[in-house]
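hey so u asked for the seq, here:
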Amino acid sequence: MAVCISVIIDIFIPLIKTLMKKITVFTALAGMAFALSYCNVSKKAANKAVAMNYETNVKEIIAANCSPCHFPAEGGKKEPLDSYADVTKHIDDILRRIQLNPADRGFMPNRHAKLSDSTINVLKQWKTDGLKEN
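ran it, structure tokens below
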């Protein structure tokens, strides 16, 4: 009988130790997940949108899609869009025309593909953000 008890103990003690380790690891992971769910740092960062500005977000879009026609230095003879002042002055017309269908009269960029929705949204957001230069 003593041998039988000894064998049972030898079998169950390692199983119990393994089970206890798993419970400890699970409890630690669950506690960390619970604690991190109340962490506001990541939520604040996600909610804080970066304001669009001309120099960082808009200037390259205009240069890539409106030149040379709207850049007098490059021989363009259309309404100039080569400066912050020019683009802010004409932003409403720019937004209207880039959102037309390519077959519509007045569509821009003329004889080119329609700008992507994400590119158009940058210009819209820039206007919403107050047309900041820097």
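The chain has two domains: 2-47, 54-128. The two ends are 86 Å apart (CA to CA).
lmk if thats what u needed
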